[in-house]
From TrEMBL:
It comes from the Eukaryota. Residues 519-618 form the Ig-like domain. Residues 821-838 have a biased composition (Basic and acidic residues). One of its GO terms (molecular function) is semaphorin receptor binding. It comes from Scyliorhinus torazame. It is a single-pass type I membrane protein. The lineage of its organism: Eukaryota, Metazoa, Chordata, Craniata, Vertebrata. This is Sema domain-containing protein.
Length: 859
């Protein structure tokens, strides 16, 4: 018996994973920020925690369970509320709850956790009810609670933070949750029937999902309907120093009545098995199941279920979706071997495969024709031998492996916690499973797997603050919608945004089974049922975009600019696809990055001279299955007027920035003038640099742009005439500098803390809150912090933000950070270009405030 030490194993897995697992991209092709696509929202003032959703498509109603309230809204427009009912905890109950040490303001409320159709006139509703779970019936017609309160123990959790699951089957509630206030007893329950309180049955489970499979309908052996439960629990079969979690599927039979002497009032059909979701090439194990969606089919044997998994070592943000075949689950339960606990020396228990005799009827199986021939008509008639065996052996030896023996989707830098799947018939008449996955940061990924090729069609921010997607539902009707619940509200999301794809190429390369290109009207449209019979629409889910004609390829708009030959140009290019590579062409000749041109976040940057007139084209190249597709995204016609001016004396170099139709010129801001110490930040794709710059030459120059480093001469060299004027100024400036440094130093040493902090807080403008997606940025923050502490000599040109070239004042600590080694900047930029592959959220532009917070902590 060798006890494995977990730590090296994990470390090995992590390293191995990082090396090998990410050959596939799994980058969302298109990213929609919050507000970029219109979504219908529902929330009620003063109400939060919209975590329970129930859809009734016949009535066209979505029921929403929130904190102390239940709402009914129109399914087609969830902002249209039709009914509401409040269910508050009584004062007395709340006090009693608080007396037990729970928070009166948060925990001692009534969180609606269960909403099911009971019959065609009422819903069954349960809430945590101040740590005293309670259920009631809600009349659909007049939308009032009937006041038939029932105890909710074992149906609904006590603690609103606990995970639970429940399903209503033919008027009976099946639930997986805790049974007592302390949360130490967990059960799978149906009225009086429950699981044993024993570690082999359930060991600290975290329930995620349950549903019924109607296996009796097409059953040849007179089998029963089954209710499946999905959860993560602490393993008994593996020995590690730390608790190892395992994802499980368990099931009970609908007809189970419990045993007569053994397993009285307990399930006689409870069996469980391990689910496997592992990357085969790296052996990386996704061992925490977060959610399940069962794609039901008329013949249950074709049923496939999808699970989203994360890893127990959650500091690694990696998620996977694995698909499983329900027939295989059934095979494990009905034909597989059982696990058996064996006691070894020192009374140490180990679980091994049981190879001995198994009693008949087979332990844990539903009552079928075979059992009936043995005169066992229901579970009460099961022999003691069978019951004792299943009591001791609820765990199956064989695991359930995913379809294809590997995950359908693997994603780095995301925690998947919710999933729904839609089976879509595309133009080629084939069926495709489209996965919609919700993350803990309010993102929705829409993905498919085309013959072992993972493809994330879209990423969508559905909640404004990156809060978790608590619930996800999909409607089945014609105009399909997703409904997602969160702490702050509910949103209704269409399953596709075809109309957002403006060109044939974008429409086809999206590889979205819902969308096809209409060559006549030149629009990307939704596919309707009729389209699959006969149409001239174009769709190619294998990514062959050959059908797009040349005029579609070159449909980009041309913008004309007249600029003065001074400062910098930034020509914006916003390709829709994050998978595309951008190339810039000047008068049809490809531009390579050199001392003049830089491409930063797809935008072209250069300092303008008189010779720079011409046509600038932004082309994208997207490679799908080895084929390259070129598209002209943007064309600029640049006209440079007037003579070239030599720059500076002014503290900042003027520059021009172009975006869309506007060309804006921005000169130094007030903030910059306040102090010659200027912190400038450049932040892009999780990469930023920040430096203070001043020159030791008589005239100081504060440059605000990245290119100033690239093309420094043209910017920072002062002209001779200006230099003469500058002598006095220089003296003044030097004195000012010394003074400021003195003040800053004192401030840094906390000799004058409060005015200093006030000043810097005043100087620091409020920006967006920083949001980092990548390790790169964190790394850089650290680097920066080190730099700010250690470097205080030398002067450097600085890298400026690409977003508006904002500059910010230093915190005035007298220590002047700089980027002494240009290689370091280069390194950062290399990281950045890697980032365009690795880091998905390009548009997450963290603000300077972040740096300042960092700086403040150093001040
Ligand atoms: C809500 O739905 C009702 C019933 O269909 C309709 O009469 C009403 O105009 C809708 N309200 C809004 C704000 O859309
Ligand atoms: C509800 O169901 C009962 C029987 O289950 C049926 O008699 C009744 O007509 C139904 N009511 C409605 C409104 O469908
Ligand atoms: C609501 O309807 C139910 C029957 O559906 C009835 O029992 C109850 O009394 C009604 N409540 C109110 C307040 O009208
Ligand atoms: C309820 O929502 C708030 C945010 O509105 C959140 O902080 C809290 O954790 C939620 N509580 C539960 C039990 O979901
Ligand atoms: C699931 O398993 C059954 C029986 O082994 C098989 O017929 C079916 O094709 C499988 N389905 C998938 C999607 O693999
Ligand atoms: C089981 O059911 C069959 C028919 O449904 C009946 O003939 C038989 O007597 C029953 N057995 C027992 C032990 O009740
Ligand atoms: C890709 O799909 C298109 C349209 O569905 C089809 O015409 C073409 O033959 C397919 N190509 C490959 C390589 O499968």
């Amino acid at each position: 018996m060798i006890r494995l030490n977990m730590t090296p194993v994990i470390l090995y897995m992590v390293l191995h994973l990082l090396q090998t697992a990410w050959s596939g991209p799994a980058i969302p092709r298109v990213v929609w920020e919050y507000g970029e696509v219109s979504l219908v929202k529902f929330s009620e003032t003063g109400v939060s925690n919209y975590s329970t959703l129930l859809l009734n498509e016949d009535r066209g109603v979505l029921y929403i369970g929130a904190q102390e309230a239940i709402f009914a809204v129109k399914m087609t427009d969830i902002s249209n509320k039709t009914s509401e009912v409040y269910w508050k905890v009584t004062e007395r109950k709340q006090k009693a709850c608080a007396a037990k040490g729970k928070s009166r303001e948060t925990e001692c409320l009534n969180y609606i956790r269960i909403l099911h159709e009971f019959n065609n006139e009422s819903l069954y509703v349960c809430g945590t009810y101040a740590f005293q779970p309670t259920c009631d019936y809600l009349s659909i017609k007049n939308f009032t609670l009937q006041g038939r309160q029932e105890e909710g123990k074992g149906k609904c959790p006590f603690d609103p933070a606990q995970r639970y699951t429940s399903v209503m089957v033919d008027g009976e509630l099946y639930s997986g949750t805790v049974y007592n206030f302390l949360g130490s007893e967990t059960v799978i329950l149906r009225s009086h029937l429950r699981t044993e309180y024993a570690i082999p049955w359930l060991n600290e489970p975290s329930f995620v999902y349950s549903d019924v499979i109607r296996e009796s309908e097409s059953s040849l052996d007179g089998g029963d309907d089954k209710v499946y439960f999905f959860f993560t629990e602490v393993s008994v079969e593996y020995e590690f120093n730390s608790e190892l979690l395992v994802p499980r599927v368990a099931r009970v039979c609908k007809g189970d009545l419990g045993g007569s002497r053994i397993l009285q009032k307990r399930w006689t059909s409870f069996l469980k098995a391990k689910l496997i979701c592992t990357l085969p090439e790296s052996n990386f194990v996704f061992n925490v199941i977060q959610d399940v969606f069962i794609l039901k089919t008329p013949n249950w044997k074709e049923t496939v279920f999808y699970g989203v998994f994360t890893s127990q070592w959650s500091n690694l943000e990696v998620s996977a979706v694995c698909a499983f075949n329900m027939s295989k689950v059934e095979d494990v339960f009905s034909k597989g071997k059982y696990m058996q606990s064996a006691t070894f020396e020192y009374s140490h228990v180990k679980w091994v495969r049981y190879n001995g005799q198994v009693p008949t009827p087979r332990p844990g199986s539903c009552i079928n024709n075979e059992a009936r021939t043995l005169n066992v008509n229901n579970s009460l008639m099961l022999p003691d031998k069978t019951l004792q065996f299943v009591k001791d052996h609820p765990l199956m030896a064989d695991p359930v492996k995913p379809i294809g023996n590997r995950p359908t989707l693997v994603k780095k830098n995301a925690n998947y916690i919710q999933i729904v799947v839609d089976r879509v018939r595309a133009l080629d008449k084939k069926l495709y499973d489209v996965m919609f996955v919700g993350t803990d940061k309010g993102l929705l990924h829409k993905a498919t797997n085309y013959g072992n090729e993972m493809h994330i069609i879209e990423e969508l921010q559905i909640f404004p603050d990156s809060e978790p997607v608590l619930t996800l539902l999909l409607s089945k009707g014609d105009k399909k919608n997703l409904y997602a619940g969160s702490h702050s509200g509910v949103v209704q999301v269409p399953v596709a945004f075809c109309e957002k794809y403006r060109t044939c190429m974008d429409c086809i390369l999206a590889r979205d089974p819902y969308c096809a290109w209409n060559p006549q009207n030149k629009i990307c449209t939704w596919i309707t049922k009729e389209d699959t019979h006969e149409s001239n629409l174009v769709q190619s889910l294998n990514g062959t975009a050959a059908a797009c004609r040349a005029e579609d390829v070159e449909s980009a708009s041309t913008e004309e600019y007249k600029v003065k030959p001074e400062g910098f140009q930034e020509l914006k290019c916003l390709p829709m696809s994050r998978l595309a590579k951008v190339t810039w062409k000047l008068n049809n000749k490809a531009l390579s990055e050199n001392s003049k041109y830089r491409v930063v976040q797809n935008n072209l940057l250069f300092s303008v001279t008189e010779e720079d007139s011409g046509t600038y084209d932004c082309w994208t190249v997207e490679t799908v299955k080895g084929r390259q597709y070129e598209q002209l995204v943007k064309r600029y016609s640049l006209i440079v007027e007037g003579p070239t001016k030599v720059l500076t004396t002014s503290p900042t170099a003027p520059f021009t920035k172009m975006e869309g139709n506007s060309a804006t010129t921005q000169t130094s801001t007030d903030k910059e003038r306040r102090s010659p110490h200027t912190v400038t930040s450049q932040i892009q794709t999780g990469v930023f640099t920040s430096t203070v710059s001043y020159t030791s030459t008589p005239t100081f120059t504060i440059s605000t742009s990245l290119i100033s480093r690239v093309d420094a001469e043209g910017v920072s060299e002062p002209s001779t005439a200006e230099r003469n004027d500058g002598v006095l100024l220089t003296l003044f400036v030097v004195i000012m500098l010394l003074f400021l440094m003195l003040v800053s130093y004192n401030c840094y040493m906390k000799y004058l803390p409060s005015p200093c902090l006030k000043l810097r807080m005043y100087i620091v403008s409020d920006g967006k809150k920083p949001e980092f997606d990548s390790d790169v940025s964190e790394e850089l923050v650290k680097q920066q912090a080190v730099k700010m502490n250690s470097d205080n000599k030398g002067s450097e040109q600085i890298a400026a933000g690409d977003r508006g070239y904002e500059t910010e004042s230093d915190c005035g600590n007298g220590k002047i950070p700089n980027t002494e080694k240009p290689q370091e900047l280069k390194q950062i930029e290399e990281n950045h270009s890697i980032g365009s592959i690795d880091i998905e959220k390009d548009a997450d532009i963290p603000d300077i405030k972040f740096i300042d917070e960092e700086a403040q902590s150093l001040c």
